[in-house]
Design brief:
3-stranded antiparallel beta sheet, Arc Repressor Mutant, subunit A, alpha+beta, about 15% strand
Length: about 375
């Protein structure tokens, strides 16, 4: 089965769906269930965006509610009752287990279980993760600058991180085919070429790939960072997971049963940031990043720091935030944080302090 719900960009939608379905009375109709899931997802995203001070969602999530319920059924966390009960959804034993994990705040087991469910159920999602691990990162240009298009080397520079010596020939073909198109159309063509290289046997559109990467980041199966090369800015996706030879001790084997009877195994990155030694490793990586990043008035950008440290340690972005929160909890803390409103955006998330919910996007060493 291939994933088709590209508008589900956060695994939290599934957790919300399970909680909503679990809390509704047995007399509720399926339509009422779906509407309640959509309403709660809308509230979740609206509250999150308000807290991050970014624009409110421009959708009601009505279609997303149905898609979430369908995917929960794909994962066998819920099942549809018979016609006599209006085909309403009810939790299975596995779904009840997830709800219990949520109640117990057992984040580690939840992360593994949900990652396994996605990898087991959706072949194209598994291919995206697997090919990132095998082939390495995917570079997609953030934008295409119209005033640069006249330069013969510009498109080649945008393709070079992904295609190397083949970039020149591919750039020439794109210039011939899309030379009169808008910069956004040319950017999408460049993205499409990168996706085709990653997934030579799968068909996936640019918007779908973008939405899938966002979801995989919340599953801790991919990281999405900003990077620069040849004076061009890129979105760079890579996996913190490995299939063998883990660089650190904090990897957990994740065995995924496949429909053909085979088992796909990867090593899932789960650093325990309550551990003092892991916090010290994170602090060392922060110190190393400080030597390469550029400060402004003595402070460094937390999203830039997150990008650098996660790639250096090959850890998920959420693990960095957890570890940084715990370093800030130390007394005295080796770090101090600040806030700059103009640096807030949906793609450059600030740190949210886990006790106060305060936002910070600046950091410095004490």
């Amino acid at each position: 089965m291939n994933i088709s719900s590209y508008n589900i960009t956060d695994v939290s939608y599934h957790y919300l769906g399970l909680r909503v379905l679990d809390g509704m009375p047995r007399t509720t109709t399926r339509t009422e269930q779906v509407e309640a899931v959509a309403k709660n997802i809308h509230k979740f995203v609206s509250d999150r965006n308000r807290r991050l001070m970014v624009a409110a969602p421009g959708t009601s999530f009505r279609g997303t509610g149905e898609k979430v319920c369908q995917e929960l059924a794909h994962f066998r966390f819920v099942k549809a009752q018979g016609k006599s009960e209006g085909n309403r959804y009810c939790l299975t034993k596995s779904g009840r287990y997830v709800v219990d994990l949520l109640a117990a705040q057992n984040g580690g087991e939840l992360q593994r279980l949900m990652a396994q469910a996605h990898l087991q159920t959706y072949e194209n999602l598994r291919c995206v993760v697997q090919n990132h691990i095998i082939a390495g990162p995917v570079w997609r240009p953030v934008d295409v600058k119209k005033e640069q298009l006249w330069k013969d080397s510009y498109l080649q520079n945008l393709l070079e991180p992904t295609f190397g010596s083949e970039a020149g020939a591919i750039a020439a073909k794109i210039r011939d085919e899309y030379g009169e198109e808008t910069p956004s159309k040319i950017r999408d063509a460049l993205h499409s070429k990168a996706i085709e290289k990653l997934l030579p046997h799968q068909r996936m559109g640019v918007a779908n790939f973008r939405g899938l990467c966002a979801r995989l980041a919340t599953l801790r199966l991919l990281n999405l960072r900003r990077a620069s090369m040849n004076r061009c800015d890129f979105y760079k996706t890579y996996s913190p997971c490995v299939v063998d030879t883990p660089p650190y001790h904090w990897y957990t084997p994740l065995d995924v049963p496949l429909p053909d009877g085979e088992t796909y195994r990867l090593l899932f990155c789960q650093p325990d940031m309550t551990d003092q030694a892991n916090q010290d490793t994170l602090l060392d990586a922060i110190d190393n990043a400080l030597t390469t990043l550029i400060p402004i008035s003595g402070y460094y950008d937390i999203p830039d720091m997150r990008d650098a440290v996660c790639e250096a340690l090959l850890i998920p972005e959420a693990a960095f935030d957890d570890g940084l929160n715990r370093l800030l909890d130390r007394a005295p803390s080796p770090l101090s944080v600040g806030f700059h409103y103009e640096k807030i955006s949906a793609n450059r998330k600030p740190l949210i302090r886990h006790q106060t919910n305060q936002l910070h996007n600046l950091i410095r060493r004490v």
